[in-house]
Design a protein that fits this description.
This protein is α+β, with helices and mostly antiparallel strands. It has 4 domains: about 40 residues, no CATH class; about 190 residues, 3-hydroxy-3-methylglutaryl-coenzyme A Reductase, Chain A, domain 2; about 100 residues, Hydroxymethylglutaryl-CoA reductase, class I/II, NAD/NADP-binding domain (Alpha-Beta Plaits, 2-Layer Sandwich); about 50 residues, Helicase, Ruva Protein, domain 3, CATH 1.10.8. The longest helix has 24 residues.
């Protein structure tokens, strides 16, 4: 019988029935099938409420970053990530940052943007002014959609209207700026935009299509800076010029900037994931922000001060929340928020920005020194050993010999393992 992924009413089946279907479709063994249908800290019942067609959960290693000091407060930061060296590198970088007092952070108000797109307008610039004439009415109507948010001190703060050119002609885009307090805010701003759409049509005579939030949350900026004393940088202060050269390369060239910023997100995304926030939104917003000048640039900046010390800074949109979504449901996410001991979404975003800056420091130091590959592959040696079938004490023995020979390769790991077993 020919296999088909066309399944009617799959969402109505029990988790066990879904797993049985998967077993037959993918021809899984009983041992393979046993990996599904059981949760860890996230139980299956909760998982089944969070998304559709649940068959199991997927775990990532959860590592603890040490040495972090933010605004004079010592903290531990859990990272959910599969990549070797990130946790160790960030812990080491944060130790160096302590020489200058740790990370210092700040942020703007947690303001999200929703966009309302009006088209089919022969007089777009007049339409723009017609909308602006209703500014106070728009703000009032928006806030009527979420009285709880307003009571908590949030709500629609301002509007702006833009006329943009497109391949389909001019469009009039209304932005509503909403302080979402401790929520990420997607649902709140989308609800407001939906309610305002008919009025935009009435006032302009145009047709509204999209009414949805923007993930370029450039009104919701988190900032972090650090000073690293020259004598605290290993292997020595002479490496500082090389680090700044590496940063300048990234800031000038989008090919380098893409990898540089990926390294920054190596720190940021694991915090976002661990706290149950939307890492796709954060990634999209960060990369869009890096290209806001018309050229994709490095997200962080590095410079040497008059004393010869290294100073770094970062600013980027981080639309993170403490209420709603998986953050309020996932038991591990709730526990990680407790470990971080944050009181607001803005504080969480600031710590996350500091993590990104520290990760960039670690990467630049490695690039200007021994190179990324040496340290990364050294930590990857255990993974290689496990990959070729090493178990127990064999893992350390294979990994250590790979590092001694500086041959972190699968074929060499297989040879070493075979030799050990003889």
């Amino acid at each position: 019988m020919e296999k088909t992924s066309r399944v009617s009413g799959f969402h109505k089946k029990s988790i066990g029935e879904r797993i049985q279907f998967l077993k037959e479709f993918a021809e899984l063994s009983g041992e393979e099938t046993s990996l599904f249908g059981k949760g860890g800290t996230l139980d299956m019942e909760t998982a089944d409420r969070m998304i559709e067609n649940v068959i199991g959960t997927f775990e990532l290693p959860l590592g603890l970053v040490t040495n972090m000091q933010v605004n004079g407060r010592d903290i531990l930061v859990p990272l959910a990530i599969e990549e070797s060296s990130v946790v160790a590198a960030l812990s080491n970088a944060s130790k160096m940052v302590r020489s200058g007092g740790g990370y210092f952070t700040s942020s703007s108000d947690p303001v999200m943007i929703a966009q309302i797109q009006a088209v089919n307008l022969t007089d777009p610039f007049a339409a723009k002014l017609k909308i602006l004439e209703h500014r106070e009415e728009i703000i009032e109507m928006a806030n009527e959609q979420d009285p709880v948010l307003v009571k908590l001190g949030g709500g629609c703060r301002e509007i702006e209207v833009r006329v943009i050119d497109s391949l389909k002609g001019p469009m009039v885009i209304t932005h509503i700026m909403v302080d979402t307090r401790d929520a990420m805010g997607a649902n709140a701003v989308n609800t407001m935009a939906e309610a305002l759409a008919p009025y935009i049509e009435k006032w302009t005579g145009g047709k509204v299509f999209l009414r949805i939030l923007s993930n370029l949350a450039d009104r919701r900026i988190a900032r972090a800076r650090c000073l690293v004393k020259k004598d605290a940088i290993t292997p020595g202060p002479e490496i500082i010029d090389g680090m700044i050269q590496a940063w300048a390369f990234a800031d000038a060239d989008p090919y380098r900037a893409a990898t540089n910023n990926k390294g920054i997100m190596n720190g940021i995304s694991p915090v976002v994931i661990a706290t149950g926030n939307d890492f796709r939104a954060i990634e999209a917003g960060a990369h869009a922000y890096a290209g806001r000048t018309g050229q994709y640039r490095a997200l962080a900046k590095w410079e040497k001060n008059a004393e010869g010390d290294l100073e770094g800074s970062i600013e980027l949109p981080l639309a993170m929340g403490l209420v709603g979504g998986a953050t309020a449901i996932h038991p591990m996410a709730k526990l990680i928020v407790k470990i971080l001991d944050v009181r607001s979404a803005s504080e969480l975003a600031e710590i996350t920005a500091a993590v990104g800056l520290g990760q960039n420091l670690a990467a630049l130091r490695a690039l200007a020194g021994e190179g990324i590959q040496r340290g990364h592959m050294s930590l990857h040696a255990k993974n290689i050993a496990i990959m070729v079938g090493a178990t127990g004490d064999e893992i350390e023995k294979v990994a250590n010999q790979l590092k001694e020979e500086n041959k972190i390769r699968v074929d060499r790991a297989e040879e070493i393992l075979q030799s050990l077993r003889k």
